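Students often ask what a holo structure prediction actually looks like on paper. The answer is less mysterious than it sounds. You provide the chain, you provide the ligand, and the output is a string of discrete structure tokens encoding the 3D arrangement of the protein together with uridine-diphosphate-N-acetylglucosamine.
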Amino acid sequence: MTHTIACVVGARPNFVKIGPVLAALRTQAPEIQPVLVHTGQHYDTAMSGCFFHQLRLPDPDVYLKVGSGRQGEQVAKILWKYEYWLVNARPRPEATLVVGDVNSTVACALASVKMGIPVIHLEAGLRSFDRSMPEEVNRVLTDAISHLLLVSEPSGRENLLHEGKQDSAIRCTGNVMIDVLRNQLPFAQRLNQAGKLGLPSGRFCLWTLHRPANVDDAPILNKFVVAMQDVARRLPVAFPVHPRTRDRLRALGLFEPLIRCPRVHVLEPLGYLECLSLSSCAKLIVTDSGGLQEEASALEVPCLVLRSNTERPITVAEGTSTLLGSDTRQLLEFVDEVCQGRYKHGRCPQLWDGKAGQRVAHAIKEFFAGAGISPLGRVGEEIAQAGYIATGAR
Ligand code: UD1
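The corresponding structure tokens follow.
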């Protein structure tokens, strides 16, 4: 018996995470047919197309073309378009797999569950406990309505149990992003992106910044730009600029001065391989990205995080991250620690072993086989009993 599962991606980090799942489903569970749905939340070549190409992802089966928008507007557009697609899809998917914490994640989870189609959340349970972050709201809501919760680090399971989720609905599958990293590292290193940019391997800082809390607030963004120039006096800086950050820097007149700063290499958003090529031979990463925090720990590269909290605490407890918020004085002290070899040594967390995709495929297979968990879950059962929709999931 074949089963159909819609696998939703929308934004840059999702593209990276879905590859190992599709590959493992293909080899381990050929009876499960994935339908790849791209919402179009990210649409530029640099933010989307390039990732499909480099990671050899199949072309999406469905493209919803939602584009950018305000938070609510974007979520609403995705929800509406995904529901419309689900209503008309033949065969109708028996489950929706959503990944991470972006607007596409919560919107498709909600559309799916309202149609009685169960949701599987990959990278469930992560919590920053900071509801001012759009991603935290997305995480909490998605987990609340998901039927199978696949977690990447132990805190995920603890948080979900604390929120009253059944242990039987949780699987510790590990970190699929690190599967990709391990696979692609030799190719990324061969690219020698640092050499191409004239950066000394092992002696430069990779800096990224895109969180609304950091880039939408003019004084904070200004402070980071000053700090970047200070860091550049110690180590050359590679700064790939997210479109949101570029727009804010331009609006504040900060972009041109940065471009003129000789030891700051201002770059377009990087493809996956180019970014890994740089991160793997950086002396130091300064970032507000959750994904890069995890990659830095897997690569054992020091990572100074421009946030005061993290939904990935294992990268601080066991890995190479230190949380700094917007304290740029401390940032410079830590940069000195790194340069002088005094910074802590972190290690790659357990289950970040390159086999997470296989564990995810196994968990999905079990889910369809009905082992230990009702395929529809409570929400789906209620909706199905109310006669709203008949699904093939039972
Ligand atoms: C989104 C995710 C964030 C993730 C990040 C990775 C949410 C709430 N946030 O943030 O968790 O870390 O992706 O990049 O889902 N833009 C382009 N081209 C594109 C896409 C966006 O130029 O292909 C510009 C648009 O001006 C847009 C802005 O970037 O308004 C922000 O894009 P959006 O998808 O809203 O959020 P991100 O900041 O990228």
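The mean pLDDT is 94.
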